[in-house]
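== Fold encoding ==
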Amino acid sequence: MKILIIGYMHPKFDKRVYRTVKSLSKVHEVIYQYWTNKDDKEYTDGNIKYLPIKEINETIGNPLKKLINRRPLDKKICDLVAEENYDILYMHHFLASKPLDPFKIAKKRNKKIVYDIHEYHPENFLAELEGMIGNLKVKTVWRFFKKQLDLSDLAIFVSEETRNDVVNKTNIDKEKTYIIPNYANFIIKPDIQKKRKEIVLVGKVTRKIEDEKKILKSLIEKGFSFKIIGMDSKEFMDITHESTEFLPYDEMMNELSNSLFSLISYNTVKNRDYKNDIYALPHKFYDSLAAGTPVIVKESFVSMAKQVENLGLGVVIDPSKVEESVEKITNAYKNYEKIIKNVEKHQKEFIWNEEKERNFLNLISHITT
């Protein structure tokens, strides 16, 4: 069986996308389109045919202008979907300027479609649009998102809460859905002796942490330190911190494993009810726990908060309540050994392993039957 995987604007080794490429290539032929800003050449390695598509027109500024700039890229991908020989089209994102075209082309060719939904698309797509235009955008995306789901044979979501919310809003068949969180690659057994009295923020994208800064400043006064792994920004100029440049995955995990807590509390956009955050189970959540580091999670991030509270994996805070949050974190520090034992007990649940891969491969294989 041949599978055409559309990575779209994801780089070649994006963790979630490339995991599907490597797993599926173990039993199927894979044609893999990915984004690059370099002059990569098409090549084949084993069961994988790599199809790089170069795009350097991505600009900062007017989102509608960015949409227009995407048209040539989206046309190339539509041509791939129309011309390549495959049995299953595996979409890791829709095409910004042609959101329905690949789905319609594949269906017209009687191909099966898997739609891997990394984000809460109606809110995440063009998230910078606000007010009346933003509301109109959300309604528009919901309309074509439902059509995409109706055309798909399988929809894969990152969390149960995202899946359930989308199913309720679109009335798609729940039996045509599956959940694959953003699992970590491997486990680092926690070692309390190596832990620094440090709270770490992981990520290559700058997010607002205005409320969290007040908490961190109070904790710094109590002897904690604050580190950012993977970036630095003027957003953090007003708080004492260390930072690292972007690190390869293994190095990032090792750095993360030495921290007391990983902070997963922030605002991506002004809207505090932004479902792309509320229902998220991001890489940094699974990576932190797999690295043996308990998490500090914002209580409105319901998908993460539920797991943290049910399994005792760290602290759930309301960052607007500074004193209460500081007290919760300092109490967790006093009971750190108990929390670490809980993290270690459940670490296997947060990594991609042979069993999860086997279930995924069986799922994809049965789509064509």
About this structure: The CA atoms of residues 43 and 259 lie 41 Å apart. The chain has two domains: 2-181+352-368, 192-350. The two ends are 12 Å apart (CA to CA). Residues 2-181+352-368 form a domain with the Rossmann fold fold (CATH 3.40.50.2000).
